[in-house]
């Protein structure tokens, strides 16, 4: 490797390393790969990084994200999914939602979670539950939703959320 390429890699490594990204040199192709640390709307791991069950969970999450849009009616959402929803109750909601649904994906048949509305960290960590979709409704329209899941890359529970204002977040819930 020539000194200029080495200098570029070193400089990029320092900058991207400080922000969580990576710079890699491929000796065979003589190219530099820059890997960003920014979040994407897709689940983070790729096919080669996860087990089959984890891949199915990621695919289901991506399907949910693609299908759910704020403002859909209950009937429209029900038609999008084959799975049966459960009606839940949330007395803590302060955002104006008036009804709530939950979907539990890849749940062990003998598993019963603790709560209808709280993130089931234990169930997700123990892989008794694959993902938990929580939908909030306001005047029969999709108002906001969240998906709690175990990220197979870091083995921690995350919460993906589309807020009532359309903003998307994906935050770490467990350490």
UniProtKB/TrEMBL annotation:
Annotated signal sequence range: 1-17
Keywords noted in UniProt: Signal
Protein name (Swiss-Prot/TrEMBL): DUF4309 domain-containing protein
Source organism phylogeny: Bacteria, Bacillati, Bacillota, Bacilli, Bacillales
